[in-house]
Amino acid sequence: MPKSDTRLNRVNEELKKEISQVISFELKNPNITGLISVTKVKVTPDLRFARVYVSLLNSKNIKKTMKGLKEATGYIKGQIARKINLRVTPDLQFEIDDSMEYGEKIDKLLNEMNKKENKDEE
After folding, report:
1. Across all residues in the chain, what is the average pLDDT?
2. What is the pTM of this model?
3. What CATH architecture is 3-97?
């Protein structure tokens, strides 16, 4: 693995940890509801942009929560700049990570197939 990939992975993990911390304990926006977990951060090689994937559980309104996160981007970026020593703090772009829902759907389909197989064997 090239040295730059290792550095990018470390930056991704550090950003993930710090963004999670800021979202969980420092944001006071009433539109941001439910349990928000940062599942993955992908930084561009030039460290100018970061795509932040979040998973939302028990959110009253997913659209309002995402809008609240996008509105809080400036604050989150400022906090990241204070906590992580990078030349350039990346611009954050939040996206919903639907991999958990996708996994649940696949699990449900597999369970249904297993039930069908068991009925056919009887």
Report:
1. 87
2. 0.78
3. 2-Layer Sandwich (3.30)
